[in-house]
Each structure stands twice: as structure tokens, then as C-alpha cells.
Q: What sequence folds into this?
């Protein structure tokens, strides 16, 4: 974003920095005196001014407050990290602070890298674990561990009793599957049971219709989610050849794999600052991986999580290729990437043809509608004249 400043500020050569975490600012200024032969000639330049950074003492002073607010944000919909029954909100930054955060979970068995908690299995007991925050302001790094207590999924007494009883009935159904009838238990947990058939009534119909409505809404949401997932996969496939091409160019220019990854991620983040609507899932995941690397996560694990988040075969293949060459010293990395890029461009051309065919098919619907309207306009006067 270009910022306007008073003539006095420019004359003084003073350009204001963005606040902590606000990103880079750009100024368009005229500079006079650069040319030896034409000292009075003005040249228009664009000057990039980085955001303000903390000193070590400033960062450490504000760090405690940041960690306190971070703990509240991470808890999300849970009362606190000591009473976790719902997914955590693993944010990567907080507004007003110049810190970025990446996360490392102690036990993937209980909490994954996206903050999803796994406490819904039957018989789940209270589980204590930790999550580690890797905090950086771009120059300095800190780590902080948060203790987390996972509690079983909150279920009402009636629902819990119903679940346990139905589990018992399911067991007896298996045991009695050779008999003509299923005999329900006459007693349960020392208490006598009585049964009555649920009568069909208007209330029952209402309940059925309500349930059907809920089901339709759920199906619609699921359909929308599947469409979004397919759209995301298309974007990932479209960007794949470009990602591989950039890695080839940068590693060929002398960058290490890690520094090439960081440059691609940083350029994408800079582009997002200039265009808030910019969203490319492949680069989003690369930026997330770069934050994990900056936070101290080992490369092999960070790249592995990148492939898992992308979730499609080409990226898993790319990460396998990068990991093999990283362990071998990267001597054959460029050759391997060039072969992969050739294959990636072929896949991209195939995808482009497929998308074109889909677009052509969708255009047939309005064409048939227009044809129907034209036929009605032609036939209507003839019928009216009969």
C-alpha cells in the first residue's frame, strides 16, 4: 500500500515504519541529486520500509502478555486448556503483536497439528498432554509449552444411558441372531425394565419431518464441503508445476532447499499483503510449513506435514523426492525436479483440457433453455390462431 506523507516529512527524509506485525510499507517519492550531470533532476522511486521490530528487551517485556493472550485464544470454545472437550484454535498470530507462532504437539494420538482433539472414542478417559508454541518476531525465537487436559466428550446423562443400553442390545442381537425374535433384557443394572411401542402420531410425523430437514441440511453442508474440497484440489494441481519450477530455478541459483522454500513462502505472503483476496492453497501450506521451520521444527517432519495437509499424490511424491535428495546431499535434486516438472506440466495441460470440457458442458444448459424459449415463441402464435 502506498502511503501519503507531508512534504516536510519527505524533505526531512523521514519515512514512518508500520507498527509491530503490520508488515512492509511502500512510499513513492521524488529524489533529487542522484545524477552527477543533472543534479536538479528528480527521479521517482518506490521505497520499501520494513515493519518496526522489537529490541530483545522490548520483546521479552511484552512476551508474557502475548503468551497469556495466546493461551486464551488457543483454548477456543473450551473454558480453558485444563478442560478441553472441543478442538483447539492453533492461531499463527495475534493482532497487535509482531510475533508469529507455529505449533508442535506432544502426542499426535490426542491432538493433531491442526488442533483437532481425539476424545470422542467410547471409554475415553482424562488425558494430560502438552502443546509447544514456537514464537518468533523474525529475528529472535522463544518456545513455550502449554499443559492441556483432554476430557471425554460432554454427553448428557440421558444420552449416555441410551448409548450404553443400545450397546447392550446390540450385543444381545448378535447372540440371538439365530432365533425368530430378539428378546430385550427384562432388567438392566439391577433395575426392572418396561417397554411400550411408540405410537405414530402427528407429533411423530413432525419429528420425522424435522429429522429429515436436519438430514437435508447436513447433506447440503457435506455437498458444499465436498465441492470446496474438489475446488481446493484443482487449485493445488494447477499450482503444482509452478511450485516445482520455482524450486528448480532457486536451487539452480545456489539456494538450499530450505532457503528456496522460505523465499517462495515469503514472496507469497508479501503478495497477500498487497492483494488480500489472493489465496492459493499450495502456497498457503508452504507458508505454514515455513513458519514451522522458523519455529524450530525438523525439516523432515515439516515437509511430511505439508504433504499430509495438501493430501494429494503429487505433493506427497514431491516431498518424498525432496527428502531423499536432502538426505543424499542434494547432488541430483535439480535433475529429479526437472523430470518431475515435465510430468507436472503434462498433468496441468490435461487438467486444463478437462476444465475446458466441463465449462463447455455447463454452457449447454442455457443453450437448451434458449432453444426452448425460441420454440415456444414460434409455436405459440400458430396455436393461438387455431
A:
Amino acid at each position: 500500500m502506498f502511503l501519503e506523507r507531508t512534504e516536510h516529512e519527505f524533505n526531512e527524509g523521514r519515512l514512518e515504519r508500520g507498527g509491530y506485525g503490520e508488515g512492509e510499507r511502500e512510499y513513492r517519492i521524488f529524489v533529487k541529486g542522484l545524477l552527477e550531470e543533472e543534479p536538479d533532476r528528480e527521479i521517482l522511486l518506490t521505497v520499501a520500509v520494513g515493519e518496526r521490530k522489537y529490541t530483545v528487551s522490548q520483546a521479552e517485556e511484552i512476551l508474557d502478555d502475548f503468551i497469556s493472550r495466546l493461551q486464551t485464544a488457543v483454548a477456543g470454545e473450551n473454558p480453558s486448556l485444563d478442560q478441553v472437550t472441543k478442538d483447539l484454535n492453533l492461531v499463527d498470530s495475534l493482532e497487535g503483536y509482531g510475533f508469529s507462532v507455529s505449533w508442535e504437539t506432544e502426542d499426535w494420538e490426542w491432538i493433531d497439528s491442526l488442533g483437532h482433539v481425539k476424545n470422542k472414542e467410547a471409554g475415553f478417559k482424562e488425558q494430560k498432554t502438552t502443546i509447544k508454541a514456537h514464537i518468533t518476531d523474525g529475528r529472535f525465537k522463544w518456545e513455550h509449552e502449554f499443559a492441556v487436559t483432554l476430557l471425554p466428550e460432554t454427553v448428557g446423562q440421558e444420552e449416555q444411558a441410551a448409548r450404553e443400553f443400545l450397546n447392550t442390545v446390540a450385543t444381545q442381537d448378535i447372540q440371538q441372531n439365530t432365533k425368530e425374535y430378539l428378546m430385550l433384557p427384562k432388567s438392566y443394572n439391577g433395575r426392572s425394565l418396561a417397554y411400550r411401542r411408540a405410537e405414530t402420531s402427528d407429533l411423530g410425523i413432525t419429528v420425522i419431518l424435522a429429522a429429515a430437514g436436519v438430514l437435508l441440511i447436513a447433506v447440503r453442508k457435506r455437498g458444499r464441503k465436498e465441492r470446496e474440497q474438489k475446488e481446493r484440489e484443482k487449485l493445488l494441481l494447477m499450482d503444482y508445476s509452478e511450485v516445482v519450477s520455482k524450486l528448480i530455478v532457486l536451487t539452480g541459483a545456489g539456494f538450499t532447499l530450505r532457503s528456496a522454500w522460505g523465499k517462495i513462502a515469503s514472496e507469497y505472503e508479501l503478495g497477500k499483503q498487497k492483494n488480500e483476496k489472493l489465496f492459493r492453497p499450495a502456497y498457503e501450506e508452504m507458508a505454514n510449513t515455513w513458519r514451522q521451520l522458523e519455529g524450530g521444527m525438523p525439516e523432515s517432519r515439516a515437509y511430511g506435514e505439508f504433504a499430509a495437509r495438501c493430501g494429494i499424490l503429487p505433493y506427497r511424491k514431491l516431498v518424498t523426492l525432496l527428502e531423499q535428495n536432502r538426505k543424499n546431499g542434494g547432488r541430483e535434486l535439480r535433475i529429479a525436479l526437472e523430470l518431475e516438472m515435465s510430468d507436472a506440466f503434462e498433468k496441468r495441460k490435461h487438467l486444463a483440457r478437462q476444465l475446458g470440457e466441463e465449462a463447455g458442458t455447463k454452457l449447454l444448459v442455457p443453450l437448451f433453455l434458449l432453444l426452448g424459449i425460441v420454440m415456444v415463441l414460434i409455436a405459440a402464435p400458430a396455436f393461438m390462431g387455431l
